[in-house]
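Homework help board

Subject: predicted structure for assignment chain

Our instructor gave us this sequence and asked us to write out the predicted structure in token form, then describe one feature. I got the tokens but I'm not sure how to describe them. Can anyone check?
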Amino acid sequence: MAKVRLGLVGLGSIAIGQYLPQIAEMASAEVVAVCDVREAWAREQAARFGIPGVFNDFDRMLEDAPFDALVNTASIPAHFPLNLKALQAGKHVYSQKPFASTVEEATILIEEAARRGLKMSVSPIHMLRPEIQEMRRLIQGGALGKVSLVRCRSSHGGPEYFQYRDADPTWFFQPGGGPLLDMGVHGLHQVTGLLGPAKSVTCLSGVSEAVRTVRSGAFDGKEIRTEVDDNTLIMLDFGQATFAVIDSSYCVKATQGPGLEVYGSAGTILGARRARPDEPPFELYRDDLHLGLRGWVSPILRLPRVRQAVGVEDLAGAILADRDPVLTPQHARHVIEIMNKCLPAARQGCTLPLETTF
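My token output:
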């Protein structure tokens, strides 16, 4: 079987801890070149994973490395310019989220890929998760009746609280960071993936904890001033009185509730916490007069958990089979529009219409 040759840019923790080791196990793709501004670090990681090409200049990698598709795991502000350069150089693209910062930038990338006949796939990976695909099948098949309300938790206690051990988490609380871009993007992809494009957005947002203290790791005890909103509540209107509420916050230290809830006229889906390997992927409540069903059902499903690099694997499969990737840039553009309009809606105290679709 032919393999898609990959060039990866940005050797941060997600690349080292997830993408590179997971891609190394794929039959459909292989990394042939990596790029990072830290040349010594790039050489060390290339040697670790047996990658022949090492670069500290992205333009040079585009010119000299023989690869078919870019895997962009660089920092968020660098996503758009790197993605655009790769497309202009004739490379397919898989990008970490968000793949651009504005609807205008996203449209430029979509049109560039279409003009050159290239494929683009964009994280988050939720629509490749088997349990989300099964939930969507149930919703679209009418198992829940008319959906009225979705609640999605897209929050945690903050990167300084538990996530970062050896890196300084300060940038998460500066312009360009914050829970909306870091966490809210996940909830928005899930909800719109299940229900389709939203029609308008309303939002409440602000700074709840003005000063944060790192709780572990190399920067234990460091105080961080919060310069961006750390507590955001998003409300979406899908039309016909179908609403969704997504919390995007760094103020949720712990919870035991489901991460995803879908309520319909004939049933409910509660996403499981997946705390145990034997736990079902979700719980289903049915209220169907015709079938005589009324009560909770544990689906007899043992669905595998997908790993972070599944989006890269899907892109490789799309290239080899000449099909569209599952994770579309059009869907990601719609989520970018929602995120771009959240804070203006919160500051103005209004509901803003959404124009994009997918």
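Reply (TA_rk): Your tokens look well-formed. For the description, you could write something like this. Residues 37 and 346 are 37 Å apart (CA to CA). That's the kind of observation they're looking for.
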